[in-house]
Amino acid sequence: MKTHGRSTRWLVMALAIVFINTGLLTQPLPNFSGTWVPIPGRAQPSFLPAGAGLTIRQDSKTIVVQQEEGLARTYRLDSEPTQHEEKESDVTHTVTARASWVGTKLTITEARQGWKRERTYFFDNGLQTELSITSATTLLHTRNGALTVSTIGPSTRVYRKGTAQF
Questions:
Q1: Can you tell me the distance from the alpha carbon of 114 to that of 35, in angstroms, rounded to the nearest whole number?
Q2: What CA–CA distance (Å, rounded) separates 141 from 149?
Q3: Does residue 112 contact residue 95 with C-beta atoms inside 8 Å?
Q4: Segment 130-146 mean pLDDT
Q5: Are 2 and 73 contained in the same domain?
Q6: Regarding predicted confidence, which is higher, 58 or 146?
Q7: Quick check: is 111 in a domain?
Q8: pLDDT at 22
Q9: Greater confidence, 12 or 121?
Q10: Using an 8 Å Cβ cutoff, are 140 and 115 in contact?
Q11: 122 vs 106: CA distance, rounded Å
Q12: 108 and 48, same structural domain?
């Protein structure tokens, strides 16, 4: 009898490994599509301004994030880089972006010379009605001949599904 119990245990473990390796036990990736408005008082640190709303469109291959200003950015969801142009003080910069999943959280990393920003999107509750976005920006610059690294963040904003106010 003991041999039969051991055989069953090994069979269950082998099947579990097969299911895990084939992705049959993984959670489905969330879809962040919708119009999102900031929840007052839910920004961390608390001194952050309320922030603007955003609209997200997502399919199996891309996610498009549109800020209140009307600026829409498209990112590939297969970890392949995308590029877009940003203008700052009459200088145009090429920004390389990459979106990657870690579990059910999506991190979008944007970088250009001397600058990197990471935003992580995730649902705060099981109902998928509260979207949290954690953001941090790293700046590399030279000050008095020395390389200086400055980090802004991390900061988190929480949004609820709503009607666009822009």
A1: 32
A2: 7
A3: yes
A4: 84
A5: no
A6: 58
A7: yes
A8: 44
A9: 121
A10: yes
A11: 7
A12: yes
Say whether both 15 and 35 belong to one domain. no
For the chain, what is the HEC assignment?
CHHHHHHHHHHHHHHHHHHHHHCCCCCCCCCCCEEEEECCCCCECCCCCCCCCEEEEECCCEEEEEECCCCEEEEECCCCCEEEEEEECCEEEEEEEEEEEECCEEEEEEEECCEEEEEEEEECCCCCCEEEEEEEEEEEEEECCEEEEEEEEEEEEEEEECCCCC
In terms of domains, do 14 and 47 share one?
Answer: no
Residues 41-95: pLDDT tens digits?
887 876 666 677 889 999 999 999 998 767 889 999 998 999 988 887 888 889 9
Is the domain of 77 the same as that of 6? no
